[in-house]
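Sharing a chain and its predicted structure for anyone who wants a worked example. Both blocks are below, sequence first, tokens second.
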Amino acid sequence: MTARDAPQAVPFLEALKFWLKLGFVSFGGPAGQIAIMHTELVERRRWISERRFLHALNFCMVLPGPEAQQLATYIGWLMHRTAGGIVAGALFVLPSLLLMVLLAWVYMAYGQLTVVAGIFDGLKPAVIALVLHAAHRIGSRVLRNRWMWGIAVAAFLAIFVLRAPFPVIVLAAAAVGWVGARVRPQAFQPGGGHASAPHHYGQALIDDTTPTPAHARFSRRRLGIVLGTGIGIWCAGIGLLLGLYGLQGTLTQMAWFFTKAALMTFGGAYAVLPYVYQGAVEHYQWLSATQMVDGLALGETTPGPLIMVVAFVGFLGGWTHQVPGIHGPFLSGALAATIVTLFTFLPSFVFILAGGPIVESTHDRRDFTAPLAAITAAVVGVIVNLGLFFAAHVWWPQGIAGAIDLPAVALTLVAVIALIRFRVGVIPLLLACALVGLLLRMGGALGLG
């Protein structure tokens, strides 16, 4: 096969093996996971061209939910119909769910041990650095002009100062992008900030000019089937929980809350976390603010979508609010984590399987891509706000009026420099920060600090 030849059709089993492998190696949060898929699917395997890849990514960026998992679902669906999309999306999540349940159990059972506490002392500053690095990475690609910078700054002020709901910010940014594409079209070029211009790596199986396959063409009948199935699964799940535990049951409340989180929040994990914090910590009190930061640290160390921190939230909620009829806190927590994961990701599958045919008909349409680029710019401002939110809890553990944790501040700054200046990988960074935190904690326990 020459460099210009398109790859042969990919058997379903071969694709399944790839999606399973991806579920175990997709570290690095959304940016890292998208980079892995780009390297494997666009550059090396050439299953899809970069232009089609970026177009799908732009669609996923505007949807509520984890864009990397949705992108995997989209490509799996495009290649192997509905079964391919479900397999790709599910295998992107399942390894992370299993690991998160295991790590959450260790956290709750042994979190007070000096060794475990020390590791989290180091991971928390690393989390702040990773959030700020995410803002830097996305911002360096999408903030190409004053329009984009203005959108990012306005989004930051809206959420930081005015406490504006994120859906409102998204809609406002989309409106600006729609108008801006007509007033300053060159400032809202397609690409959503993930690449300045698509590269060509040789002919792909799904290339720029490859006709949309029959199953990916819009059909009202198919749309009705997808929406009906998704709503039916949701209703069956909610109905079962209502029958078993009632409206005020912990699992029922979790299912309803994370359904709202899945539908009402945009911009991926970094944007959804403030909403989850408000509900899970402040309203339902399933866990504390410190535990929320610890959960994000665990999410950064495991493969899969960063939004899998919701499984940690669910596990701790089930652990501390024992589910009736379930014996033992571990089983209660594991069941809650599974319920939370189901209701968080169900809408993502419905969005992709229902909206994919519409997206396939919008290639190169600026009236569709410009609002997405504006929304991506707004997400940068929201991510910066999230970084400051976590910094306030980590740097001032007793509140802003209390003493500042200087080692945590120093470790955060060093981690930011390591990520941006020296491009240190996520896993090496987390391991190094965990080791520093452990040494500091051990030194304090021995009276050396």
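Comments welcome. The longest helix spans residues 67-110.
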